[in-house]
Task: structure prediction
Amino acid sequence: MTTQTLSESGRSTPQLSLRTVLHNAGIGLALLALIVFFSVFTEHFLTPNNITNILTQITINLVLAVGMTFVILVGGIDLSVGSVMAFAAVVAGKAITLPGFGPAEAIALAVVAATMTGVLCGVFNGVISAYWALPSFIITLGMLNIARGAALQVSDAQTIYSFPLAFEEFGSAMIYGVPVVFLVALLLVFVAWFILNFTVFGRILYGIGNNEEAVRLAGHSVFRYKVAAFTICGFTAGIAAIVYMARLNISSPIAGIGFELNAIAAVIIGGTSLSGGRGSVIGTLLGAVIIGVLANGLILIGLSDFMRQMITGVVIVFAVILDHYRAKYAAK
Amino acid sequence: MAAAAPGAAPLPTHGSAFLSVDGLKKYFGGVKALDGVSFSLEQGEVHALVGENGAGKSTLIKILSGAFPYDSGDILLDGSVYNPASPHEAKQHGVQVVHQEFNLLDHLSIAENISIEKLPRTRLGLLDRKELNRRAVKALKAIGLDDIDVRAPISSLGIAHKQLVEIARALQSKSRILILDEPTATLTKRETERLFEIVEAIKADGVTVVFVSHHLDEVFRICDRVTVFRNGKTIATDLIAQTSPEGVVQRMVGRRLEAEIKEEHQDVHQQDVALRLDDLRTAANPKDRGVTFDLHYGEIVGIAGLVGAGRTEILRGIFGMDPVQSGRIFRDGQEIRFSGPRDAIASSLGFVTEDRKGEGLVLDMPIAANTSMANMDAVSKLGLLQFPAENRQAREAGARLKLKYGKTSDPVSSLSGGNQQKVVLAKWLVRNPRVLLLDEPTRGVDVGAKAEIYAILKGLAREGVALLVVSSEMPELMTLSDRILVLADHEIQGELKRPDFSEENILNLAYGRANAAGGQAQ
Result:
């Protein structure tokens, strides 16, 4: 009994996260190999400027991918995040350029407008797909079109610009060469990691992804948790809209086309299972970085953008095959 | 009656066998599915295969139809070895199966379904619809169906007609053996009559029909011979004319185990009613009558019956998993209606489900997480998990149930079947339920763990918990229960008290032969 107590004095997560760490280590090693490769074969890869560049480039994808992780963990998918981001950006752009507000109030208003827009779209996705048990693939494909149309309608297909100066400064601010917007994304990763590992909510999300029926039989409302996952995904699309606006100083209704695919790729490369229940947001962070490093490094090495796209595609396919074998071993 | 002496070598026949099976064995890993099966088929007979669930009937059918190979023994068809590598090869030998679950394509037409294995083509290689429909009409006519539009989609047919389409499809290519697996399970009386007429006609054409059924009255109605399975072995083949339903039941049961059950049983004085069902009818129940019974605190009530008798459905209905059609549920005398498992749990119910991988456990998650799955409030504060509390809970439950495990953080999938089942129990026991529903509580559990689980359940009853146990294993029910309700066709056929416990009495009730159970019925 004593030995048992000793060996179990810690939390019950270490084992879980040890496994996660182990397979994240695989992703980490792949990332390390990429970094070494590009450092050796290109001159400019490992320079402070370029690193700042990469971090800036991956920020939006990382923000979207954090929300996407929640949805994929419960066995869903959200194809609408790119469009929802554009819609949220347009609504926030309208809000921030309303006359009669000081810069601080205008920015606050924009943040609320963007996140609320995202949340509402997420609630829609979640409620419709969970209540009628419809494939989220189709429902969010519908939302992809709804949100894109709404963005074009609300903006009258015009790009919105001339935001407050402070907003612009936030978008380009650095701390020791690290973009502030990237730190915002990292904060999101941390919060998501905490929620998924240390709250009842996170536990149930993993449970649903693994075995929905068992969770329902244990007396939990699977519907509410699924809606919550989609809502979180919509919320991060709203945050991504703010980051996008601050970075580029515009709100374009045609922003974010295809962003959903990059976000899904980051989650999958990060080792989260497409069938749900297995994975981590730390993996998602590494997945997003890998995509960013690949994009940046392959261009530095002199490959065309087309080649870069092909290679990223190969990596995604490879990641899914890897996941297949991981699932097989987990089943044993 | 029970004609042939046990182990009688020459099987009773009334013609010459063209298919003979001898000493057939089949293993799945270490599990014996068939452990010496011998029987024969004759031209133009209707041959019944009967036996309890898991006795080996389905495995034999799958081997005959080429779904999987056998490990040892012989099958001779027309004197040469028969070992089909695939269902396709079996069909070429004229062996056709109509499965319990149909293999029909819902959105295609009846005609397309009938010819799906070999669709007719025109000279240009296009689908020859005329020929397609002609063949379908012919195939349906052969079994006496001429009032159906073969161009209609399968989904427009009722279940009985779907089955007839399956039979028509099986018969259109030259069939020698037609295997019907539980063909009447979903049919009404009239539809069953129709099916029997068709079977008679097929038989008259010289086709051999293998008839698998749980209904002995049907077996005695249309079959010529009956082969009884028990524990993967064939016990005997009898001519129907020379045996009786009682004789068949005796063969199915054997003379085993009856002694060891009537052990210690102290008469517990009746406690309060924990749960009362009044004419409860679930959505799955096609009858217009429901079930009525009381479950008292401190007692274990068993529910026996064959697969499809509606046992699990009662538990699911009580627990709010399936909608309740009509009838009432009383909990501690108060009428209640659970709109979902959540309500049932709040009312101190627990449900150990049959399928622990599908419904009971989250396999990839740690033992501790599974143990707390229905008891999150006890291991969290303000939504934050309290890992020490959760581990303590899992360790205490583990000690109580003699769970063999490494660490509480190990995934449940690392445990043996018996220990996984204990984790399912632990999940509910940590809530201290007052009423515990159990569906096949020891399925796939080894003998040692079984005994431990029995001890745990009996202990719970002594502590005053009311237990309702559904099981297909009769020795299990007889060991655990204070009384057994026997279900057939969604109706309680009778209640057996402990002194009347015997497999024979249970089976007689389960096969709807209430009067044969010696007056204990109702």
Observations:
- The radius of gyration of chain A is 20 Å.
- Chain A touches chain B through 35 residues (CB under 8 Å).
- Confidence is low (pLDDT under 50) at residues 1-15 of chain A.
